Each structure stands twice: as structure tokens, then as C-alpha cells.
């Protein structure tokens, strides 16, 4: 997807539910992740929870990250971006349901933001390696290792790095970030290998 207008339209449509849902007021609760409701068959919450937020600040920072990373990701490869978002939207919630049963109510796009980051960072490293660009190769690995260090810190301390989660009344969910990133990076790696194999096959023919 090379047209900037198309990229903006795609990202805008992805973000639209998150921007509209605050207008629902308390009724948005029917879309949030609620462990008890999910166990009683309300499966849609596993996906819809990503577009629910706790406050205007929460929505602003999640949406800003999604917009920046989303535009970058769709410019790289639309198919990778869509697959990463679709798979991670379910994988994150299922992972939290299974591995963090103490979490009863969850909202937020940050896990999907991390999926987009996974797509972008794998591409940056792969492209830099292909073009022998040391600068972007180092930048890519620095960003990747910084993400891993940040996530490890949050998993161990249960505190967020970039904000005071206690003051904000928000519980850090680094597991959601890790799952999202893993899906995005994994999709990008697998599709990159398939693309490389296809190119070699064409050359051989």
C-alpha cells in the first residue's frame, strides 16, 4: 500500500472504534475484557477489548503509537500488518486469559501497538542487513533489545517504565506487549522467508 491516502484511510478505520467508543459512556463496558463475562460465553470481548480505554490520556497515547507504527507498517507491507493485527488481537486476550487469571478487566490498544512494532522492527533490521546499512542495523537491534529490557523490567517489577501506573490507576500488562510483539515479529519473519524463497525460485526458473 504505497499511496499515503490509502495508508491514512486504513489506519484511520482501524482507530475509528477506539475514538467513537468513549461516546458510549459506561455502556462501553459490554466490550471490555471481563474474565467472568467471557467464561459465560461473551467471546467477542476477547477482541473488542483492545479498542476500549480507561481515560482520555490512555486513549491518546495508545492511538498515537498505533497511528505512527500503523502508517509505517502498512507502508512496509499491508498483508503482514493485517495478519499481525488479526492474529495478535485474539492471541493477546487468550494469552492473558490463560496465563494471568488474576486479571479480571482489561482495556487498551498497547498490545496491538507492539504487534505493529514487531512488524516494523523486523523489517528495519532485515532491510539494513540486506543493504549493508550499519546505522539502521544498529538502530534496529537497539530498539529491539530496548523493548525486551523494558518488558523484562515490567514483568519483574510490575511497574511501567514510561508512566506512573500506580498514580494513573492502571496495571502494567507487559505480557500483552510481549505476545503482541511476538506475533508481529513472527509474521514478518515468516512472510519474509516465504518472499525470499519465492524470489529465489523465480531466479532459478
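Q: What amino acid sequence fits the structure above?
A:
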Amino acid at each position: 500500500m504505497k499511496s499515503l491516502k490509502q495508508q491514512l484511510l486504513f489506519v484511520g478505520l482501524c482507530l475509528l472504534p477506539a475514538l467513537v467508543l468513549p461516546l458510549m459512556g459506561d455502556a462501553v463496558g459490554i466490550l471490555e475484557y471481563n474474565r467472568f463475562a467471557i467464561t459465560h460465553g461473551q467471546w467477542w470481548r476477547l477482541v473488542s477489548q483492545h479498542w476500549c480505554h480507561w481515560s482520555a490520556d490512555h486513549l491518546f497515547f495508545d492511538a498515537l503509537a498505533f497511528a505512527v507504527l500503523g502508517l509505517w507498517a502498512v507502508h512496509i507491507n499491508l498483508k503482514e500488518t493485517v495478519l499481525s493485527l488479526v492474529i495478535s488481537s485474539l492471541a493477546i486476550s487468550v494469552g492473558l486469559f490463560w496465563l494471568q487469571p488474576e486479571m479480571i478487566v482489561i482495556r487498551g490498544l498497547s498490545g496491538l501497538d507492539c504487534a505493529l512494532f514487531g512488524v516494523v522492527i523486523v523489517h528495519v533490521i532485515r532491510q539494513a542487513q540486506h543493504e549493508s546499512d550499519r546505522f539502521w542495523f544498529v538502530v534496529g537491534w537497539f530498539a529491539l533489545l530496548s523493548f525486551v529490557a523494558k518488558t523484562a523490567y515490567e514483568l519483574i517489577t510490575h511497574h511501567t517504565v514510561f508512566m506512573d501506573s500506580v498514580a494513573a490507576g492502571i496495571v502494567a500488562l507487559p505480557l500483552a506487549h510481549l505476545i503482541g510483539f511476538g506475533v508481529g515479529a513472527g509474521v514478518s519473519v515468516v512472510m519474509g522467508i516465504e518472499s525470499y524463497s519465492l524470489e529465489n525460485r523465480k531466479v532459478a526458473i
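Q: And what stands out in the fold?
A: Residues 174-204 form the longest helix (31 residues).
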